[in-house]
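Appendix B: a complete holo record

For completeness, this appendix reproduces one full record from the ligand-bound portion of the collection. The bound molecule is NAP. The inputs are the chain sequence and the ligand SMILES; the output is the full three-dimensional arrangement of the complex, encoded as C-alpha cells. No fields have been trimmed.
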Amino acid sequence: MLAVHFDKPGGPENLHLKEVAKPSPGEGEVLLKVVASALNRADLLQRQGHYAPPPGACNILGLEASGHVVELGPGCQGHWKIGDPAMVLLPGGGQAQYVTVPEGFLMPIPAGLTMLQAAAIPEAWLTAFQLLHLLGNVQAGDSVLIHAGSSGVGTAAIQLARMAGAIPLVTAGSQHKLQMAEKLGAAAGFNYKEEDFSEATLKFTKGAGVNLILDCIGGSYWEKNVNCLALDGRWVLYGLMGGADVSGPLFSKLLFKRGSLITSLLRSRDKKYKQMLVKSFTEQILPHFSMESPHRLVPVLDRVYAMTEIQAAHVYMETNRNMGKIVLELPQ
Ligand SMILES: NC(=O)c1ccc[n+]([C@@H]2O[C@H](COP(=O)([O-])OP(=O)(O)OC[C@H]3O[C@@H](n4cnc5c(N)ncnc54)[C@H](OP(=O)(O)O)[C@@H]3O)[C@@H](O)[C@H]2O)c1
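The structure of the chain with NAP bound, as generated:
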C-alpha cells in the first residue's frame, strides 16, 4: 500500500509517498480502507522530529481517517461488518491506503456527510469535546475563551460551546478568521496581533473575566490568560504553539484567581479512555450533525489535497493559512 513517509526529520520537502506493507488486524481490531485523512499540527511536529508516536503506535502520520471496513480481526464483537463506512480516531497511520484500528475507535458517519467531511471530524471534534466537557466542565452561561478560533479544534469548540449554552469568545490573527469564527457562533473575536485580547475579554465580560480558557498557545499567552480568567476559572492547556517557557509570577497570579490549570494530550491516552471518549461523543454529539438537529454542527473544511500533494498541504498549515481542516484524499 502507499503511505506518507519521511526518511529523516525536517521540512515538508522530506515528505513523499512510499510503498509499505499493508497491516493486518490484530485481536479486536478492524482493517479500514482509507478514503480520506486530515492534517493535524501533530503531523508537522512529528515530521520535524519533535513528537514521536506513543509506544506501540504506527509511525506513519495521520491521527484520523474515514473509509470502509474491509477485514475483521479475531475477537471483534460484531458491531461492525465488512463494507461499513466509518470514521476513526488514530494514534497514527491514517495517511496510508489501509490502517488497523481497535473496533471501539470507529464511529458511524453522520447521514448527509461525505467521506471528506467525515475525515475532518475525529481528532478536532473529540479534542474539543474532551476539553470542554470532560476537562473544562463547561456549564450553560459560562464564558469560554477559545484561542486559535479558526483552527480545526477551534472551529469545533465554538460550535460545541454554543451547544452547551456557553458563550464562546475567540482569538485569531486576522479579521477574515474572526469573521468566520463569528459565523460559527463566537459571540466576539479579538485579533491578538492588533489588540490585547485580555483587556478586550475583560471589557466584554464587564470585568468578570472568562470561566474557561481553551489554550493551545501556552508561553506567549500566559500572562494575558491569567489576567482575563474569572475567579475560580479553569484554564485548559492543550498545545504550545506560543512556546513552553514562562517567566514571571504565574503561580501567584493564578493563586489569587483561585484558578485551575489543567493540561491535556489525547494521543497518548490509553485504549480504554479513548473508547469511552468515542462512545460518549457518538451518543451525545454525533446526532447533532444531522440537518434536523437545531444545533446543526458542521465540520469546517478549508481545502482538500490529493495525498500526492502532501508537501503542499504541510506548507499550507505551517504558514497558518488554513481556516478549519485540511483534508487529504487517498488514491483508491
Ligand atoms: N492536546 C491535544 O490532545 C491536542 C489535540 C489536537 C490538537 N492539539 C493542538 O491544538 C492546536 C490546534 O491544532 P489544529 O490542528 O486545530 O491547528 P490548525 O488548524 O493548524 O490552526 C492553528 C492556528 O493557530 C494559530 N497560531 C499558530 N501559531 C500561533 C502562535 N504562536 N500564537 C497564536 N496563534 C498561533 C494560527 O492561526 P492565526 O492566524 O489565528 O494565528 C494557526 O492557523 C495545536 O496546538 C495542536 O497541537 C492538541
